[in-house]
Amino acid sequence: MEHPLVKMEGIVKNFAGVHALKECEFELRSGEVHALVGENGAGKSTMMKVLTGVYQKDQGSTFYKGKKVDITDTATAQKLGISMIHQELNLSQDLTVAQNIFIGREPRKAIRLFLDDKEMNRKTELLLKQMNLDISPTMKVSELTVAKQQMVEIIKAMSYESQVLIMDEPTAALSDSEIDDLFRMIEQLKLKGVGIVYISHRMAELKRITDRITVMRDGVYINTMQTADVSIDRIIAMMVGREIYQPAKSERNTGGKSETVLQVKGLMRRNTLQDISFSLQKGEILGIAGLIGAGRTELARAIFGADQIDAGEIFIHDQKVKITGPHQAVKHGIGYLSEDRKHLGCLLDMDVKTNVVLATMNDFTKGLGWINNNRISETSIKIVEELTVKTPSIGQKLKFLSGGNQQKVILGKWLTRDCDILIFDEPTRGIDIGAKSEIYKLLESLVAQGKSIIMISSELPEILRISHRIIVMCEGRITGEFNNDDDITQEQIMACATNRTSSAKTEREE
Amino acid sequence: MKEAMIAAKKPAFSFKSALEQFLAFGSLILLIIFFSIASSNFFHFSNIVGILLSTAVIGVLALGSTFVIITGGIDLSVGTVMTLCSVMTGVFITTLGLPVYIGIIGGLLTGAVCGLISGIAISRFGIPPFIATLAMMMIAKGLALVISGTKPIYFTKSPVFMEISQGSLLGDLIPGFEVPNAVLIFFIAAIVGSVLLTRTIIGRYNFAIGSNEEATRLSGVNVRNWKIVIYTITGVFTGLAGILMASRLNSAQPSLGMGYELEAIAAVIIGGTSLSGGKGTIVGTVIGALIMSVLTNGLRILSVPQEWQTVVVGFVILLAVYVDNLRRRKA
Ligand SMILES: Nc1ncnc2c1ncn2[C@@H]1O[C@H](COP(=O)(O)OP(=O)(O)OP(=O)(O)O)[C@@H](O)[C@H]1O
Ligand SMILES: [Mg+2]
């Protein structure tokens, strides 16, 4: 029998106080897409970081094409032909797209003394085209949205032409059409015999793209199965260790108590937003759907005062307000959870409790700015329990938490602040399926208390599941609005999301 | 569950931070042991007091610098601003003949205003800290010379002023324990700084900004204003250093001061505070400053020429940062 491409056996990995992997195993054949699933903190990323030499295993062995190998650093893995797209973005923000893709192996010319930028940009152009990506190789990465950065990461990993490609939640920030492009590329790689490890919390994708599924729970290997032989419900049950019920569609309350809390009129921002007007009712979840680059994040940032606006008015409770910075937005009762967890959400070097109370620090101080640590601890423990954050303690630095658990912490940051209007940009990014339904319940209880939520998500089913009303954006404009009680379909929304009428540009009237 | 959540933090946390602190503290002890063995003149009460006294000015400057460095910024102006503060104190007390306490307040205020201006330049006008404080360094240097007419200002008419640095409250209380006030003030300033940094909202935001400024801003923290506050705090410490300096020399020397900022920064770094921000302690800075002066004092006692002392200090900085990196990579 032919050797599997990769085989890992009895892998043990401990961090100070955390047993991340306990005797784990994993096998990857060439030409297969192998899903690795489990709850947040199950050890998926750690397992793959051991394979790629980011972490050193404490015990166990790794075989590559039947030979025992000792992968001590990422360069060794790279040489063997193993590359990984990490869960967190790792691009250099100040370099261009092409420079990022070819970092460390830049094309040279003239006795290899000078960089050959032309060649580099040309190659990048080709790669970008394969993925249907409409960006220029010379664009700076910092100008790209998270989703586009994610695509660049994917392209970069693919360009190494590796034998083994590990994708740690590649689709967490992507919307359907980009996912289609990604899956097309994956199919092509499969034909070439590349083995692909696919980590995802989006269960629907597993059936579409994977051949086998390995389930992990609490650092323990549970089972490996043929995707075709097992139901999604079964997999979820294995992940969480018990059968969980999943309410089909939530018992949504009526929402929209016909009291407008936020009204936006004619919002403009050069190159990103055109004449945006909408309103948000008390007790309503307003979903914003759209593709990458539709301007959803830009809209959220503009309302929150994170970016300057060029024109337009914002009313809160029918009062016109001028928001020139996030600190003012917060004073007006607006909270905003960014989609870019690593760069704009987390204080990675600080502990869980500081992250939880960052937006509410003033509430935890007595005269002269004296901090009440006991109350901070109480509050953060409450959040940790409520959101089932997996952490050894609230004093753990955030960078040692798994991606999904970091997300829960920064979500918790806004839950501790009593905001009337919460803008959540991809709030469930990287969060496992069990915790997700907990978070939906939480959002529903928030609106039941009279708060209002704007929810940006690239996962349409998610938007359809919990919003009362949905607006769709395309190229910086609102191209559709639906009440979620009609029988609207994903197709209708997608039609609006791709409604590129960039020709006859509608003149702004007001 | 509740107890576990907090309790679990305790052993892992304090053990690690103890280890971190131990590195700097351990080297300080080692240095002291080494010099005590190498020379019988080192471990004497009078010499130790001398070391502490010579640490006081740089130490207080370093305390202030710790704040800005934790935000990921830097203040290159503390050396010459310190001089400007001495000069202003001199102007108030000697030239204008105002009471000593007015001179002290004037000196502290001068520091605060300089810090405030740097802070505004940095956070309102977006000038990088390196450049804004480099400019402030020149401005303060020039102003100190202009205001003093390039001549030292002596405090001979106010003998009380000298007591601030050179008197000994402790000696009055405990006969024989003649520790100069400057040392006492240094330690009190360190305690105040430490409390500010660890127990108040200023300190918490200080670390948050250094750790991830943009994420902090997006959490609704008014980062710009807080940075101005932090640079102003640094300025106040600088003013205090200026007063100590003037009192110790019994004069305001307008041409001194340049270069002190680098020694202060060195002390901060040896103390384990990271130049990239988000990490650091006051205790570390105190130890860092002590290491520097123990080193110079010890080398002098061993009759190592001054020029070589500087070379050694340079290598110690390299070593300190290298060891710090090693430790961090392990974590
Ligand atoms: N460097 C580290 N130091 C300490 N603990 C760590 C470190 N890295 C991971 N852990 C812990 O190991 C466990 C497994 O983490 P891992 O990142 O592998 O989870 P995951 O399955 O990828 O989860 P997610 O779905 O949230 O990404 C978690 O409990 C995490 O807190
Ligand atoms: Mg992970």
Automatic annotation (TrEMBL), chain A:
GO molecular function: ATP binding
Annotated InterPro entries: AAA+_ATPase (IPR003593), ABC_carbohydrate_import_ATPase (IPR050107), ABC_transporter-like_ATP-bd (IPR003439), ABC_transporter-like_CS (IPR017871), P-loop_NTPase (IPR027417)
Isomerase is among the record's keywords: no
Domain ABC transporter per the UniProt entry, residue ranges: 6-243, 256-500
Keywords from the named record: ATP-binding, Cell membrane, Membrane, Nucleotide-binding, Repeat, Sugar transport, Translocase, Transport
PANTHER family (UniProt xref): CARBOHYDRATE TRANSPORT ATP-BINDING PROTEIN MG119-RELATED, D-ALLOSE IMPORT ATP-BINDING PROTEIN ALSA-RELATED
Gene source species: Paenibacillus macquariensis
One Pfam family named in its UniProt record: ABC_tran
Protein name: Monosaccharide ABC transporter ATP-binding protein, CUT2 family
From TrEMBL, chain B:
Membrane topology annotation: Multi-pass membrane protein
Keywords: Cell membrane, Membrane, Transmembrane, Transmembrane helix
Location(s) in or outside the cell: Cell membrane
Transmembrane helix recorded as keyword: yes
Broad class of where this protein is predominantly found: membrane
Ranges annotated as spanning the membrane: 21-42, 48-69, 76-94, 100-122, 129-149, 182-207, 228-246, 258-275, 282-302, 308-326
Record protein name field: Monosaccharide ABC transporter membrane protein, CUT2 family
Originating species: Paenibacillus macquariensis
